[in-house]
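User: I'm curious whether this sequence folds into something compact or stays loose and floppy. Could you predict its structure so I can see for myself?
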Amino acid sequence: MYDHCLLSEIDDLVPNLVALRRDLHSHPELGFQERRTAARVSEALVGLGLEVHTGIGGTGVVGLLKVGKSSRTVGLRADMDALPIQESTGLPYASQHPGVFHGCGHDGHVAMLLGAAQTLARRRDFDGTVHFIFQPAEEGLGGARAMIQDGLFERFPCDRVFGLHNWPGLPAGVVATRPGPIMAAADKFEIVLEGQGGHAALPHTASDVLGAAAQLILQLKTLVGRCVSPTATAVLSVTRVSGGHTHNVLPATVTLGGTVRSFDPEVQNRLEAALRRSAEGVALMTQTRAKVSYDRYYPATVNDASAAQGVIAALDGVCSTQVLDAPALTSEDFAFMLQVRPGAYVWLGQGSAAGQGGVPLHHPGYDFNDDVLRLGVAVHVALARHALKQVCVG
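Assistant: Here's the prediction. I'll summarize afterward.
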């Protein structure tokens, strides 16, 4: 059973963690621009007496805490970046930067991991090394990949690495994970249809690129059903269309874009090939030209089975845990870390934050639920102590 005295110690940290979290919320920074956030993180880690390394993968920070003589190591990761969204919460600590907003709770993730660093540095009741990894640019820019390319795991070896994300769809106080895939691969596409523009009253003299785009969108919506096995899981969504400027001109170009989510590289291959064929076929039929850009920007997030089982064991007595029946079709660049080192990604139940009505992540009215900061610290501490074979002291 878990050391319940530790929870009381964490309670003492919560007011300062809430203040820190709200300060970060007020001063959000986009990916690879997290200079103020990184400075606050670095200052806090130095104050705890940790060995601190900055500028990893751009604005990433790693704090190193070694206790005892064991060669065992573990990595705990928090993402730091905000989203390009205009906040609508009306909170007293709302973003002071127009169009930039912590709409995914990374402010809370940073606060929880700093709380864990403070707790572990004070107790020192483990044997090994903890690497506290504060990562930039999770929101679509691949900050995890940048840190890895900058030598993250060569400089800071990790036997296992864990990432935690708040999850509004789970009750507060519940932690969930699963062996194998937990988040989807994320691909994005853009298709530009080009033709001959002209007068809207003389359609026979121009190309109907808008009509071609409409046909293509309808075709794309059939690809998962036509190309993917019913036992597999995939989503293809067209999310934007742009073309034309006025009522009496047929445009020469139309651009459409969207995303594809899946878990199997073979499914990715089939859907990308089918999308390209569809674009080429519609272009041929409508006497237009199609230019396709397709980017597989995040792989699937796949948990090591043993590490996922270890999460459940580590949290026995800490909180309620769930093993998820199915993965989510959202994506995470922690996937890059799990391609290099064994580990697990876990969800921390956010519940319905007071006054927020349970809004989802990436919503302009979202706010991290400060009531789960205490549990988030405890989860990080439990994972580290379990990985490093908690020792008895005192």
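Summary: DSSP finds eleven helices and 16 strands in the chain. The CA atoms of residues 258 and 314 lie 39 Å apart.
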